[in-house]
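Good morning C.,

I know you're traveling, so I'll keep this short. The sequence:
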Amino acid sequence: MNEVEITLDMIDKARTKSAEMGVLKNSIIRGSGNIAGFVGEQIALQCLGGEWQNTYEYDILMPDGKRIDVKTKQTSVAPLPDYDCSIAKYNTKQKCDSYAFVRVKKDLTVGWYLGTINKDSFFDKARFMKKGTVDPSNNYKVQADCYNLKIKDLEHGT
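The tokens, ready to paste straight into the viewer:
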């Protein structure tokens, strides 16, 4: 897990992309996470390298051709190894090879690159959570059908 200081340049790039994109269909928080999501992509780029593509299918194209989709959550605290990385059920068909997971502090001062995992491995290891159920590991009421995997279970390779 790498802690990354969020720069004004990262925020400016995120605001520009967010304005271009607008609110996505099926957005759980109705677009309010767009800037954090784009900041998360900037953090992943800083840690992984590659080229920022920002397509629906994936966000980063690596020099070897691997396509990585970045998944970002906003947080008020530093993440712990037992915290979950999530992928909404409606995003399972994206044409990427791996996922990178990032947490971004709500005040946009710092973020954490958590690691990556191969797409197939993620779904082999993740547990499915149905919308409306309460996750017994953290008492969070699930907002949309999703798959969860602990940070400590990421593979950390691309």
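Safe travels,
E.
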